[in-house]
Design brief:
Among the domains are: 2-152, SPOUT methyltransferase, trefoil knot domain (Alpha/beta knot, 3-Layer(aba) Sandwich); 171-218, tRNA(m1g37)methyltransferase, domain 2 (Trp Operon Repressor, Chain A), CATH 1.10.1270.20; 222-326. It starts with a strand and ends with a strand. By secondary structure, the chain is α+β, with helices and mostly antiparallel strands. Helix 9 (220-236) packs antiparallel against helix 10. The chain has helices at residues 10-16, 20-27, 64-75, 95-102, 119-125, 141-152, 162-166, 200-218, 220-236, 240-251, 282-289, 307-314, 348-354, 361-369, 408-422, 436-445; strands spanning 2-7, 32-37, 50-51, 61-62, 83-92, 106-111, 128-131, 185-186, 189-190, 255-261, 264-269, 274-278, 298-301, 316-326, 340-342, 373-378, 381-388, 394-399, 428-432, 448-449, 454-459. Strands 10, 11, 12, 13, 14, 19, 20 and 21 form an 8-stranded mixed β-sheet that branches. Strands 2-1-6-5-7 form a 5-stranded parallel β-sheet, with helices on both faces. The chain is globular and about 75 Å long.
Length: 462
């Protein structure tokens, strides 16, 4: 991931990123820090970048021209490069926002100084205005460093263990549980006995309970959101196989709840711009339709009798009709082919050539960079791959033809199931109706097929 920081003090950025984990991440080519000096783009004597404020007022303002030229030197012909302006007037930085930024390949972070930056250039180049708190600093460099640190640790490989980033404060609206190290007794205080049992189920139950207690005590606002989501999940679990796409998104805190009443839920997966509905009747679908977000890219739902309604009233058309297979157990599946690794970006063309008729290259790149794409090897040769879709379902499965009579396909599928289990999710897959071979393989592995089909629909193109 590349960070372009537009600043008056590049040495402050480079120095702050030259320590500890960020230093190692740069050395391993996981992140790149490009600190660009805005003064280099001034056209005035002595590289002046500020001037007096129209209308009067104390202090000076950074001028539009050097900021724009600096940004343009980084962006080139790209008009939609994600550009963050760090300002106390921005939206408060949250872990959800950090996750979204971490999915980008490049980010521009613009650091202001003096009384800020001419509004006209902000309107032209900035996509996000972000604050790290309700206080004022002398410049944007410290907030930029905070953002770089928070975002970098979610880049696959930076922390060394993906679990380090998945199981901590603010995940799923819970603060992190208490943690302990050796010795077992310190100042007459003992490590909780549950953590010494070696029983992972009991340990996870204890950690969840303590996270809930801590959140309820320290952040009642977060705890209220957590309880609301848990109540909705509990209702959806009454039809687990039919509603799993919504349940999993809520459990992973990936979906925003737009409406919920009994078994009817409208959710929005912001990262993928997918609206989701769980309902059983056309009347419920009509009610849910009132709460859809604007300009969604896809609608995902499980109500067959509402398909014509979406066609007639909303001008949607079916992209795919799928079976939904769900793994309802908690035990990991056996994997006979052991050599499965993270998919290397340099082999992107191989994946693109063998999946989706070469039409999904950018999506496959995003999945690789997210650490959600995996390869099966025969010695040093890639012979198959699989991945987790951005919405959470398992798939992207391919095996070289000469290896299809072996166990590589089922091993890759089992690997994905186990990965989802390790992350605390519910493994599920969407299989296009008609792909009976894939459906049979999922059923043989122990996945159950929902009683209803799943519909992916999209607005018709004009």
């Amino acid at each position: 991931m590349i960070f372009h920081v537009l600043t008056l003090f590049p040495e402050m950025i480079l120095g702050g990123c030259a320590q500890s984990i960020l230093k190692r991440a740069q050395k391993n080519n996981l992140i790149s820090i490009d600190a660009v000096n805005i003064r280099d783009y001034s056209t005035e004597k002595h590289n002046k970048v500020d001037d007096y404020i129209y209308g009067g007022g104390a202090g000076m303002l950074m001028k539009a021209q050097p900021v724009y030229d600096c940004w343009k030197a980084v962006a080139g012909e790209r008009e939609k490069l994600r550009t963050i302006y760090v300002t106390p007037q921005g939206k408060p930085l949250t872990q959800k926002m950090v996750k979204e930024f971490a999915s980008q390949e490049e980010l521009v972070i613009l650091c202001g100084h003096y009384e800020g930056i001419d509004e006209r250039v902000l309107e032209e180049v900035v996509t996000d205005r972000v604050s790290i708190g309700d206080y004022v600093l002398t410049g944007g460099e410290l907030p930029a460093l905070v953002m770089i640190d928070a975002i970098s640790r979610l880049v696959p490989g930076v922390l060394g263990s993906d679990e380090s980033a998945e199981d901590e404060s603010f995940e799923k609206d819970l603060l992190e549980y208490p943690q302990y190290s050796r010795p077992e007794i310190w100042h007459d205080k003992e490590v909780p006995k549950e953590l010494l049992t070696g029983d992972h189920k009991k340990i996870n139950e204890w950690r969840t309970r303590k996270a809930e207690e801590r959140t309820r005590s320290m952040r009642p606002d977060m705890y209220e959101r957590y309880c609301y989501r848990q109540k909705i999940i509990e209702e959806l679990m009454k039809r687990k196989k039919e509603n799993v796409y919504m349940i999993d998104a809520l459990m992973r805190d990936e979906a925003e709840i737009l409406y919920a009443k009994n078994s009817v839920v409208v959710g929005y997966h912001k990262k993928t711009n997918v609206a989701m509905i769980c309902c059983e009747t056309i009347e419920e679908a009509k009610d849910a339709a009132k709460y859809l977000p604007e300009n969604y890219r896809l609608l995902l739902h499980n109500c067959a009798e509402s398909v014509q309604f979406w066609r007639d009233e909303y001008g949607l058309e079916i992209v795919d009709t799928c079976y939904q297979s769900v793994y309802t157990q908690h035990n990991a599946l056996p994997i006979s082919h052991k050599d499965i690794r993270q998919y290397p970006l340099e082999e992107l063309d191989y994946a693109n050539d063998h999946y989706g008729n070469g039409t999904h290259k950018e999506y496959l790149r995003e999945r690789i960079l997210a650490g959600e794409f995996f390869a099966a090897y025969d010695q040093d040769k890639i012979v198959g791959f699989c991945g987790i879709h951005s919405g959470g379902s398992l798939g992207l499965l391919y095996v070289d033809e000469e290896y299809r009579r072996g166990n590589i396909g089922s091993s890759l599928a089992s690997f994905l199931v186990n990965t989802a289990l390790d992350r605390g999710g519910i493994p599920y897959a969407h299989i296009v109706v008609g792909n009976e071979a894939s459906l049979k393989m999922q059923q043989k592995m122990g996945l159950y097929t929902a009683n209803c089909e799943i519909y992916w629909m999209t607005p018709k193109k004009n």
